[in-house]
Specification:
Elements lengths: L11 H4 L5 E11 L9 E7 L3 E6 L8 E8 L3 E15 L5 E9 L3 H23 L2
Length: 132
C-alpha cells in the first residue's frame, strides 16, 4: 500500500491505545503539499501518541493528509503527518470546526518522544492540581 493511501478507520479500542491530555501548544496544520512557511499558533490540543483533536477556523477534507508541526516544551520542534478522520462543525462561534486526526508515517522514536512529553504534561497537571 502506498504511504499516503488512506487507511481504514480505527476501532474504538485502537483509538484509545494511548493516554490523551488537553494542553495548549503552538501548532501548525497545513496540507501535506503546502510549501509555505509554517506559522505556529497557540491552540488547545487534545493529544495522544496516536493523534490529535483540535478546534480550527478552517475545514480540511476527511482523509486529507496534513503536515503537523508542534512546538513542545524545551523548544522541541515535532513534525509528523496527520490523517484527517473526522471534521465536525462547531455551532459557536461560526465557521469553527473540530478536527480529529491520527498520526501516520511516524517513526517509533518520534512517537516515544511525543509520549514522553505527554507524560510530562500529565505529571505537571497532577502536581499543579493534586499535590499537597
Amino acid at each position: 500500500m502506498p504511504l499516503d493511501a488512506p487507511t481504514s478507520q480505527p476501532s474504538p479500542k485502537d483509538r484509545r491505545e494511548f493516554y490523551r491530555i488537553t494542553v495548549t501548544l503552538p501548532i501548525c496544520l497545513q496540507s501535506e503539499s503546502d510549501t509555505t512557511e509554517e506559522t505556529l499558533i497557540q491552540r488547545s490540543v487534545n493529544i495522544s501518541g496516536g493523534g490529535i483533536g483540535i478546534t480550527l477556523n478552517q475545514v480540511f477534507a476527511v482523509n486529507a493528509i496534513l503536515s503537523c508541526t508542534l512546538l513542545l516544551p524545551g523548544e522541541v520542534l515535532f513534525k509528523s503527518y496527520l490523517e484527517v478522520l473526522r471534521v465536525d462543525p462547531v455551532h459557536y462561534p461560526l465557521n469553527t470546526y473540530r478536527l480529529h486526526g491520527r498520526f501516520i508515517r511516524m517513526a517509533n522514536p518520534d512517537r516515544e518522544l511525543l509520549i514522553r512529553h505527554i507524560i510530562q504534561f500529565q505529571r505537571e497537571h497532577l502536581n499543579k492540581h493534586y499535590s499537597a
